[in-house]
Automatic annotation (TrEMBL), chain A:
InterPro entries reported for this sequence: AAA+_ATPase, ABC_transporter-like_ATP-bd, ABC_transporter-like_CS, P-loop_NTPase
Organism of origin: Marinifilum flexuosum
Transmembrane segments: none
Chain coiled-coil ranges: none
GO MF annotations, alphabetized: ATP binding; ATP hydrolysis activity
Keywords (A to Z) from UniProt: ATP-binding, Nucleotide-binding, Transport
PANTHER family: INTERMEMBRANE PHOSPHOLIPID TRANSPORT SYSTEM ATP-BINDING PROTEIN MLAF, PROTEIN TRIGALACTOSYLDIACYLGLYCEROL 3, CHLOROPLASTIC
Top-rank lineage group of the source organism: Bacteria
Family annotation (SUPFAM superfamilies): P-loop containing nucleoside triphosphate hydrolases
Stored SMART domains: AAA (SM00382)
ABC transporter domain sequence ranges: 2-238
Protein name per UniProt: Phospholipid/cholesterol/gamma-HCH transport system ATP-binding protein
A Pfam match: ABC_tran
TrEMBL record, chain B:
Name of one Pfam family that matches: MlaE
Keyword terms, alphabetized: Membrane, Transmembrane, Transmembrane helix
TM ranges: 38-63, 83-102, 145-164, 184-204, 225-245
PANTHER family attached to this UniProt entry: ABC TRANSPORTER PERMEASE PROTEIN-RELATED (PTHR30188), PROTEIN TRIGALACTOSYLDIACYLGLYCEROL 1, CHLOROPLASTIC (PTHR30188:SF4)
InterPro entries with a match to the protein in the record: Permease_MalE
Record has Transmembrane as a keyword: yes
UniProt-recorded name of the protein: Phospholipid/cholesterol/gamma-HCH transport system permease protein
UniProt source species: Marinifilum flexuosum
Length: 250, 246
């Protein structure tokens, strides 16, 4: 479980996050949605500690991440897995080495155990016969799946995904979304996904935080989002004719 | 950003880089890989440039020694001194600043813009230390070998040029390269080479590590890295020469 209490963040005079408070539960896919520039990436980066918040608190279970020193944060970071927008696979390492990297750095496993774990993680994301390929040699969808495999290699308690299906075709995007949801439930992780893809919202939005202009504008789930009275959210969700027609027909 | 801000930021950056590596075994394997990438892969360019520079120094010296009172062995002596004192350390340093420096800045910069550095940070790894310290250690280790190679090949090039153009007899040239030899000059040049190796790796890494933006900014950072590391090499050359040869 990750809890945010009155999180604020500004860059100079520009206030990007204003008093954001919310609890992200474990075993659920928690989505942060909002328009480009609304502050959702800054929020995600603040949660994982790539940005220091100006004030407010971020709790990982009962541990106040914002008050921890470098060593304490490092310990929590070992419990995190992150899937970046572009995959962020290491160019100089092949698929197997990428997934094995966190194990090499932090586990005390034997080489045999590490290889077995890598095999399990790659199998879990349906990657086969690609161990020797480098990131530049595989498709965007495969890169995302390898990134997920790398993120779960150390059995993280917390999984973060920054726009995991951007740049993917709709079919692959759904596959990635479902994969993240399955893994979240299987390992009872607290998963936070940053997205502005409405298909993802409808597919895996078990808990949704909508951010508008740096403020928490709405909180709910995929079933509630269709009937919301929140104007900003309506403008965001029903921006396309497709969704406008779906709403009309329902 | 002004000079003082850069100095402060660079100092903080070095504190991050020069900390204890996460895992010794991985650190060692990275050093081996960097030695190959930064050192072994540079042997070709060092050999080619040294060979031709040695030849040119020999020919220019020979063609400019018009006074018959000057002995022929001075050609060999001049070639050795030029290679030993300046060319193989400073000029090769400048060449490597271009080749290795741009490579490092673009590699680290690309890792920054594609969030690979963020990925390391999220894992709880000191990314600056993990990515950059092996490069610095590898360069400081391998560049002195490149220096020695450059001196050897340069003198060989001079000998070949002298022989092939009949400007200086082989025996005179060999006598010249042994004449008035001061072993301390090698120590002096090796110290310079080690300092230049640090500059060649640390400065481009700094520019790459703090890149913001995309491919265009990576290119700009690469250019800045080469220009500034070259200037720093020249500055360090003056300072070290004054300190070590006074």
């Amino acid at each position: 479980m990750i809890r945010l209490e009155n999180v604020n963040k500004a860059f100079g005079d520009l206030k990007v996050l204003n008093d954001i408070s919310i609890t992200f539960e474990s075993g659920k896919t928690n989505l942060i949605i909002g328009q480009s520039g609304s502050g959702k990436t800054v929020l995600l980066k603040s949660i994982i500690g790539l940005h220091d918040v100006d004030n407010g608190a971020i709790y990982y279970n009962d541990r106040n991440f914002t008050e921890l020193n470098h060593k304490g944060k490092k310990e929590i970071r070992k419990e995190m897995g992150m899937v970046f927008q572009g995959g962020a696979l290491f160019d100089s390492l092949n698929v197997k080495e990428n997934v094995k990297f966190p194990l090499d750095m932090f586990s005390t496993m034997s080489e045999k155990e590490k290889n077995k774990r890598v095999e399990f993680c790659l199998d879990r994301v349906n990657i086969k016969n690609a161990n020797h390929l480098f990131p530049a040699e595989i498709s965007g969808g495969m890169q995302k799946r390898v990134a997920i495999a790398r993120a779960i290699a150390l059995n993280p308690k917390y999984l973060f995904c920054d726009e995991p299906n951007s740049g993917l075709d709709p079919v692959t995007a759904i596959v990635i979304d479902n994969l993240i949801q399955e893994i979240t439930k299987e390992f009872n992780m607290t998963t936070i996904i940053n997205t502005h893809d409405m298909n993802s919202v409808m597919e895996i939005g078990e808990k949704i935080l909508f951010i508008s202009k740096g403020y928490k504008a709405w909180e709910g789930n995929k079933d509630q989002i269709f009937n919301t009275k929140n104007q900003a959210l309506n403008d965001f969700v029903f921006a396309s004719d497709l969704f406008k027609n779906i709403k009309k027909s329902t | 950003m002004n000079l003082f801000e850069h100095v402060g930021k660079f100092s903080r950056f070095l504190l991050l880089v020069l900390s204890k590596p996460e895992k010794g075994k991985i650190f060692f394997s990275q050093i081996v890989r960097e030695i190959h990438k930064l050192g072994i892969n540079s042997i070709g360019i060092v050999v080619i440039i040294s060979l031709f520079m040695g030849a040119v120094i020999t020919l220019q010296t020979a063609y400019n020694m018009l006074n018959p009172l000057l002995p022929d062995y001075l050609v060999g002596y001049t070639t050795r001194e030029s290679m030993l004192l300046e060319f193989s350390s400073t000029i090769v340093g400048l060449i490597l600043a271009g080749k290795v420096g741009s490579n490092i800045a673009s590699e680290i910069g690309s890792m920054r813009v594609t969030e690979q550095i963020d990925a390391l940070e999220i894992m709880g790894i000191n990314s600056a230390n993990h990515l950059i310290l092996p490069k610095i250690v590898a360069a400081i280790f391998i560049n002195p070998f490149l220096y020695v190679l450059s001196v050897f090949v340069g003198i060989l090039g001079g000998l070949a040029a002298g022989y092939l153009t009949s400007t200086v007899a082989v025996s005179e040239f060999i006598y010249g390269i042994q004449y008035g030899f001061i072993p301390y000059y090698i120590t002096y040049s090796l110290i310079k080479t080690a300092v230049f190796a640090f500059i060649i790796t640390a400065v481009p890494s700094y520019y790459g590590y703090y890149v913001k933006g995309g491919a265009l900014e990576v290119g700009k950072a690469s250019t800045k890295a080469v220009v500034n590391s070259s200037i720093l090499i020249l500055l360090a050359n003056v300072i070290l020469t004054q300190i070590l040869l006074k």
